[in-house]
Amino acid sequence: MTARNDDLAGFERRVRAVLEHDAAGASGRVRSRLTQARHVALAGARARREMPSGRLPRPRAWLPATVTAAAALAAVWLLRPYRAAQPRAPRIVTAQNVQLLTDRDGLALVEGGDGEFYEWAVAQARSTPVSAAGEAGPGKHGG
Amino acid sequence: MDLPNSNAQILERTLGLFLASVELRAFRIARAALRDEDDALDAVQDAMLHLVRAYAHRPPEQWKPLFYRILENRIRDMQRRRSVRNRVMSWLPFAADGDDTADPIAEAVSPQMPPERRLELDESLAALERALAALPRRQQQVFLLRTLEGLDVAQTAHAMGCSQGSVKTHYFRALRALRAQLGDLE
Fold it and tell me: Is A11 in Cβ contact with B178 (below 8 Å)?
């Protein structure tokens, strides 16, 4: 049993020697690539250390700002022609205009431009005495 | 004097020394598992980046098992991906191109050893690689972590994500299988 273990231990030593030989005899290309990899890893650590937050900026960190800016641009672009097509509202709205707009009959008279009615009403008022006009009204309704 | 910055520089230097101390053996372990030099280099680089990014603040004595744990996970991911890719590629009517010609200058090693001894070791290494490749993956990784990297049983268990008893079992089986296959390795 001990001899067997010694045998295995001796074999293990020989294997180790062979493997060490292999590791020591790596090609120039392999050594160069490994050195380069080490420098890249350490440079990454240095960059992280020199960042104020200790972390490299990630693309995702810019996402909210990018989305907000894109949405704002899209809104401006969509609203611009709509606003240009809108009729301009009058700048001054007087109290008289408000009264005219809210009075339906007055507005109809203004819009219709019915001057003949006013002329007829004035003529009737001049030709008919006030007392006769007052007596004629009730008689028509009663007859 | 900026003390926090100075501490960070010391940490960076310590990390650099640690990575330099493990990178070649890590590459060797990854290459044994992945059987591809470029994939092994990618796995080691990923493990380095992950260790520095996520675990640099841990005590340095924890770095080695953590590093090999990351490497082990990375190797497993790459093997899974490769398995899926191979299954897909087997259905396609074309094969991968063979643009893997080695550059003899880049592949050259420094001649610090007598040529006879180097040749002898190269032959032993080739035999060992074949035998290692024939081992189950867990046995292979446990064996390399213990033998090549020199992790103890607890560290290997942490790196492999298994129990210490499992590490001992895998290691012993691997050693016995290699011994049976290689005989007296010179």
Answer: yes
